[in-house]
Amino acid sequence: MNKKWLPLTVVLGAAGLAVVTASIWPDGEEKPPLPQTLCHGALSRQTAELIDDGAGGEVSAEEWERKGKGEHAVFKGCQVQRANPDSDSPRGIYQLIIEDTRSAPARKKDSVPLGPGLTGWALPDKAEATLPTGCAARMGSTAPYITVTLSAPSQSEKKGRVDRETAIRHSVALVSEAATNLARNTGC
Predict the structure, then answer these.
(1) 81-132 per-position pLDDT tens digit
(2) Torsion of CA 97, 103, 104, 110, to 10 degrees
(3) Distance from C-alpha of 100 to C-alpha of 97, rounded to nearest angstrom
């Protein structure tokens, strides 16, 4: 071997040894991978993180579901939360409710439409989308409509954390993705 290549060989050998050691060395407590979808598969993690109260923290969701009780045959909910750096209790950021309803949703005053292909409206702190015709029956309901309702008090205009247009864009993105994913997952 030529002596001019000896330092390079030593450096590359040491680097290779470091890589192998790092890959097999136990690095303590392994955390399970974060779920890529939240809220009964309605939201991607990226979209779920759009609404923030400004205090940061990892996003998680507390989901619940009720079938066939009371007035709703379909009732699913989700509280999106963020981790608190100072305590083990997460703080609620917004809520997403999926439910069947007998009456057509009415547009709220000062709201904006969701956009092409979607029926619904959005305000900074609230939004609603109606799933396409046929989704209610596929989800086990006799009601004609399934609605997805977003309630995001952290985006309230009174709180002033984000401007009205940004808050509305967040609301539209969340409720639109939820309605689109639920319709696709249901096959309607």
Answers:
(1) 999 888 888 989 999 999 999 888 888 999 999 988 889 999 999 999 999 9
(2) -70
(3) 10
